[in-house]
């Protein structure tokens, strides 16, 4: 927080939302490894971008998707067990993979999604406690994130990048129904959404 507050419009030359993601090298030992990371122009990424991360081979990196849903029949006990297993799975995956993706894509009438914020916060702090957080990027694939506030809170809880897939799919569906301009491509929809999020985050 600055006083007076930074004006994101008049002072945009000194503001950036670019996000380096991936394993971090020791800052006390300068080396070329410190720049061997992926740079995102914006923490909000599109569905194709996320698919690219899932299948990346950049610097021989690999990605691991962690399901953050659990069977509805298991109730509260299933919720607590799943939250613990997410943390343990992330810890094990950090030994072999460089990008961890927390995903609620499998949510449905039979599977309940754990709040992406809760799953992210628990995973982030578990990896810190096990000294593995700097070894991986944490990416969130969530239907829950839609508004600027949602994105900001996820970033504050440790997300390196966020794919709000439901918001993007909804916008594409509205285009197909003629509710919004039918000339908009998926890329234009994403760029408009990402720009709106970027403006909101900067403010």
Automatic annotation (TrEMBL):
Pathway: Amino-acid biosynthesis. One of its GO terms (biological process) is ammonia assimilation cycle. Its cofactor is [3Fe-4S] cluster; FMN. Keywords: 3Fe-4S, Amino-acid biosynthesis, Flavoprotein, FMN, Glutamate biosynthesis, Glutamine amidotransferase, Iron, Iron-sulfur, Metal-binding, Oxidoreductase. It comes from the Eukaryota. Residues 1-203 form the Glutamate synthase central-N domain. GO terms for molecular function: 3 iron, 4 sulfur cluster binding; glutamate synthase (NADH) activity; metal ion binding. Belongs to the glutamate synthase family. This is Putative glutamate synthase 1. The gene is Glus.
């Amino acid at each position: 927080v600055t006083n007076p507050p930074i004006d994101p419009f008049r002072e945009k030359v000194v503001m950036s939302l670019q996000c380096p993601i991936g394993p971090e090298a020791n800052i006390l030992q300068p080396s070329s490894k410190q720049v061997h990371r992926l740079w995102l122009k914006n923490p909000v990424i599109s569905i194709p971008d996320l698919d690219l991360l899932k299948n990346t081979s950049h610097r021989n990196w690999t990605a691991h998707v962690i399901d953050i849903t659990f069977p509805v029949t298991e109730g509260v006990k299933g919720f607590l067990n799943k939250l613990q297993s997410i943390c343990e799975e992330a810890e094990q995956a950090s030994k072999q993979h460089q990008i961890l993706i927390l995903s609620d894509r499998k949510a449905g009438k039979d599977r309940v999604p754990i709040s992406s914020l809760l799953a992210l916060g628990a995973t982030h702090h578990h990896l810190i406690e096990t000294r593995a957080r700097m070894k991986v990027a944490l990416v969130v694939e969530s239907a829950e994130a839609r508004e600027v506030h949602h994105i900001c809170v996820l970033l504050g809880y440790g997300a390196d990048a966020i794919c709000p897939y439901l918001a993007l799919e909804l916008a594409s569906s509205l285009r197909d129904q003629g509710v919004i301009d039918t000339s908009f491509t998926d890329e234009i929809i994403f760029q408009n959404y990402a720009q709106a999020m970027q403006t909101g985050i900067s403010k």
